[in-house]
Amino acid sequence: MTSAQLDKMRLELRRGVLVLAVLASLRQRHYGYSLRRQLQDNDIDIDEGTLYPLVRRLADQGLLDSEWQQGEGRERRYYQISELGAELLAQLTGEWTTLNNALGPLLQPEQTMLIQQEEEKS
Amino acid sequence: MDLVKRYIAAVQRELPEPKRQEIGRELQANIMDQLDALAEQTGQDLTDQQVADVLKNMGHPTQVARQFCPTEPLIRAHLMPLYKHTLFMVLGVLFVLQVVFMTKAWLTGADFGLIRFILGLASGFIEDAVFGFTAITLGFALMPVNAAAGSSKTYDQWHPKQLPPVGAGWQHISLSDIFSDLATYAFLLLIIWLPLWQQNFAVTAAAQSVFSAHVLPLLMWFSPVIVLGVIGSLWQLSRRLWHTPLLRLNVLVNLAFTLMLLTLALSGPLLQLDTDNWVRHFDPNWLQRTIKFFVLSLALIPAYEVVRDLLRLKRLSVS
Fold first, then answer.
1. Burial A39-72 (b: 16+ CB within 10 A, else e)
2. What's the helix, strand, coil split of chain B in %, to 5?
3. DSSP states of B78-100 as a string?
4. Could you read off the pLDDT of B12-49 as tens digits, one per residue?
């Protein structure tokens, strides 16, 4: 498999998951940069060029509430999950859990292989 | 900070007017937060190079703008199959019409050679096709977003039993084949009937028939077969799949064409040629003989189709 194919598939795989991660992170109020830090602290690396437009799209869909506020000498747009977003997050979490449980046994051989490779390296 | 302003202005230029202000304002807040965090991390004021690195990491202004406002395709993905089908059908009809107009012009024109006919056909078709392509593309581009309601209804209301039976690859009839046949039939009907129609009804000077006096009546009697061919093509257009009745009709039409071409080749001079002007360059007898051989070889095409369709009929009856 070429690197371009891997990048494309990784992007497709991450796309839906990122929505889930952003909605879950915005149970607490965040502005753009603090949200990115919050995701990075949870080992979810997402570049700014993807994150900020994604947050705006979710807000446009009514899944996030937002308001401009002054903070630390600068105006910032703060986002938080809306009622509609919370409902969707609950449903998506159910989907994710079902998928994850179903995929677990299917991916077991690859996961075991990855663990072995990690052990060999260390 | 000049670099940040330039970057945001570059992004805003790529955005639609109503969203420029809002997105620019938010982007600036996010970039400034990031620069502040970096300055805090390094413990000193940022250099232009460091600011430039942060901005470069954000992505090209055009890419960032597209992430904020993804470009809408001119034709929406769900309309694309319908768009392509409409385009092909309209271009096919325009081609047939162009053949009709050019044949009419050829028959009524005083000085009109084969090369000029082909060039006229090509240029006229390209001119019409450009107009047709633009009109259809604009029509689909301006279609409301929910215009797929009709087609999605079609996709919902179907039953597996309505699907045609599994057939071999040859059973599918391509649109280009249908329109080529229609153009040929239109050309033949015009070439046979236009001079006669003009003799009886037209105000302008009548065109002289290209066929010789004894061939023209034969072709006139043959016209119903050509009309049958047109009906067959229209039938193919409605259901683009070879089936037994359609194959039988095709065998009948092609058999009639083969017999007619053989009769024409074996009868006397085929065309009414202006031999007085050509006698210096060509021997008229040689020319008529060449035309005969050409018509004989032409008869091989429908003859081949007869054999092919008979074999297909046999295959269909076995399955």
1. beeeebebebbbbbbbbbbbbeeebbbbeeeeee
2. 75, 0, 20
3. GGHHHHHHHHHHHHHHHHHHHHH
4. 999 999 889 999 999 999 999 889 888 988 888 888 89
**Complex ipTM, two decimals?**
0.79
By CA distance, what is A33's nearest residue in B? B30
B232 within some domain = yes
**Number of domains chain B contains:** 3
- Report which of B50, B25, B26 is spatially closest to residue B36, judged by C-alpha positions: B50
Between CA B31 and CA B4 the distance in angstroms is: 8
Nearest-by-Cβ selection for B63 from A34, A49, A75: A49
**Distance from A32 to chain B by nearest Cα, in Å?**
6
DSSP bridge pairs for B241: B172
Residue pLDDT, tens place only, A59-97: 999 999 999 988 777 889 999 999 999 999 999 999 999
Q: Does B62 touch chain A (CB under 8 A)?
A: no
B15 contact A CB<8A: no
Whether B215 and B258 map to the same domain: the answer is yes
**Same domain flag for B214 and B81:** no
Tokens of B170: 């040859």
B32 touches chain A (CB under 8 A): yes
Nearest Cα neighbor of B93 from B66, B64, B58, B131 is B131
Q: Which residues of B touch A41 (CB under 8 A)?
A: none
B278 belongs to a structural domain? yes
Chain A nearest C-alpha distance from B153 (Å)? 26
Q: Are residues B41 and B127 in the same domain?
A: no
Query: Which residue range is the domain that position B113 belongs to?
Result: 75-146
Q: Is residue B34 part of a domain?
A: yes
Quick check: B137 and B114 in contact, CB under 8 A?
no
Domains in chain A: ranges and CATH: 3-95 (1.10.10.10)
How far is C-alpha B76 from the chain's CA centre? Answer: 20
How far off is chain B from A79, nearest CA to CA, in Å? 12
